[in-house]
Amino acid sequence: MLSHGSGGRQAHDLIEKIFTLSFGMTTPHTDSAILDVSSSVMAFTTDSYVIDPLFFPGGDIGKMSVCGTVNDLAVSGAEPKYIAASFIIEEGFPVDELGKIAESMAAEAAWADVKIVTGDTKVVEKGKCDRLFVTTAGTGFIKPEFRHISTGRMIMPGDKIIINGPLGNHSIAILGARKSLNFKSPVISDCASLNHLIGKVMSSSADVHFMRDITRGGLAAVLNEILSFVRTGIVIDEETIPVDEPVRGICEILGFDPLFLANEGKVLIVAGEKDCREILEILKSDPLGRDSSVIGEFVEGVGKKAILKTVTGGRRIIDMPSGLMLPRIC
Amino acid sequence: MLSHGSGGRQAHDLIEKIFTLSFGMTTPHTDSAILDVSSSVMAFTTDSYVIDPLFFPGGDIGKMSVCGTVNDLAVSGAEPKYIAASFIIEEGFPVDELGKIAESMAAEAAWADVKIVTGDTKVVEKGKCDRLFVTTAGTGFIKPEFRHISTGRMIMPGDKIIINGPLGNHSIAILGARKSLNFKSPVISDCASLNHLIGKVMSSSADVHFMRDITRGGLAAVLNEILSFVRTGIVIDEETIPVDEPVRGICEILGFDPLFLANEGKVLIVAGEKDCREILEILKSDPLGRDSSVIGEFVEGVGKKAILKTVTGGRRIIDMPSGLMLPRIC
């Protein structure tokens, strides 16, 4: 009800019953969490989640909102630590669904070893938002030697590009879960917190030059973002890009390109050739990186372009995604 | 358009044109901001803003989203430092209004001396959200000696309660700005960043025992929250509560109680009697505290209640607000 967003008794009850318990927060609640800081460099990120539907094969908006923020921090070289969670709730949204989503956030936070420490709830009138939007913010701490890992400054010609598994599963799972679409797919979202996987790579002797999670806009968007701050080109070998068979099939039917599809548990790692093997081994030994693959490299003399060597032997430019792809995929 | 939320070219253009410029962010953009940390204790907060209308006398959703987060940090004893801003935008929302809101955020951030360092944008289909929702998160750093200021542990019987000015202006300004309501009011929202004002008090020799901003739920909600973690009662003297004349008049006509109305630039400060005068002097010397007043005290032997001594000589309990007050006031 709207009164649950009023700041009065009902708002307090909602927070106590749904969020405080799930997230293991201590009382008294103040609007800011007071937290210990373990490093002199901090990563800070936020994302809003407007995914439709709220529940999908492999996750829900709650799990996703934790994974997304954890991954944004992890690829910046940080150890994710604290999460803030803010809820915009449509009047009439069932409290038991909200409870399920909070539990799912709590479970993912426990798995990822982060704490949900502060939050907010707002309730808007029926019809003024679509059921539930969740915004998470996260902070984590960075060892000073990893400070520049998200800037791309350390990328060099000859560096290899590694991804930790097949592309497109999240997008196709969401499409399949939308009741308006007339197909049922066996595909499950790859929604996962990657911080432990990334932590293993970071604490190895291998030297990581760059990391980025591959989300909205897909691999194509990440490659083009990288091109905006490096001086070389990128050549990707289509044959080496892992795509699961059902995803490939549905893409062919619907005319989608897996390179442009969103993921929620994929990371792109850049490293020199000699460190590449060690990283690949670490990734492959983890369930979240079992199908890792070296998919391309940074190449001089081809211009500042991302070029795809296709399976049929052709070459085409991977452009920045443009126009409407799949709305509300995250 | 929906494509502005796609993670592709249009999304990048929107971010570059509207947010990056306004907020003075540096490229390349990564999903996490990498930040220096100046203290070993951090405050971390988040709030979603769903206010209707977006623009109102004295502010807009952008200014408000910065003030609210700055104030949450400041009352926890922190120096607010970094802001994350996440936007959920309805398809068709005018880009120039978004620009105005971003400029307003940037101006308020500059005034409050905080940096907007990271963000996110999502676009949902027409009818799936009400124009624009903004979620801000903030981090700031706390001198170790102020670590417990938001817990209420330092509150003692005899301590005085100070507020920095008249109550209810924000609520009445919003009501007046809603076109559906048939009255026009001269009242302007008190929406303001209080960190500089609070900073002056904190750096004085006066000993602050507790602080809290007075927002949704009004003074009544704050007093009842305090009662949940102290052992004494609270006695408030109605005569000493500043309420502006037009606010009082509109409250009488509409049957509102100023103690239950939302504010966006009000802080409640608790201190011992001897420090109270110094704090009041500091507050009154600042435009944001000109009408500061000592409104009550912590009293033993009256039970764990908040009691209002009314102007007519009666006594009534100030209960926790319950049920629907004004929806979407922040």
Structure overview:
The structure is a homodimer of 330-residue chains. The first copy, chain A, is α+β, with helices and mostly antiparallel strands and 330 residues long. Chain A has 8 helices and 14 strands. Chain A has helices at 9-23, 61-75, 95-112, 169-177, 195-202, 218-227, 245-254, 273-284; strands at residues 32-36, 41-49, 55-56, 59-60, 78-90, 115-124, 132-142, 160-163, 208-213, 233-237, 267-271, 293-299, 306-309, 315-317. Chain A has a 7-stranded mixed sheet with strand order 9-11-8-12-10-13-14. Chains A and B meet through helix 1, strand 1, strand 2, helix 2 and strand 5 of A and helix 1, strand 1, strand 2, helix 2 and strand 5 of B. Strand 1 (32-36) of chain A pairs antiparallel with strand 2 of chain B, so a sheet runs across the interface.
Question: What descriptors fit this protein?
Answer:
homodimer, 330 residues, Phosphoribosyl-aminoimidazole Synthetase, Chain A, domain 2, 60s Ribosomal Protein L30, Chain: A, 4-stranded mixed beta sheet, 2 domains, alpha+beta
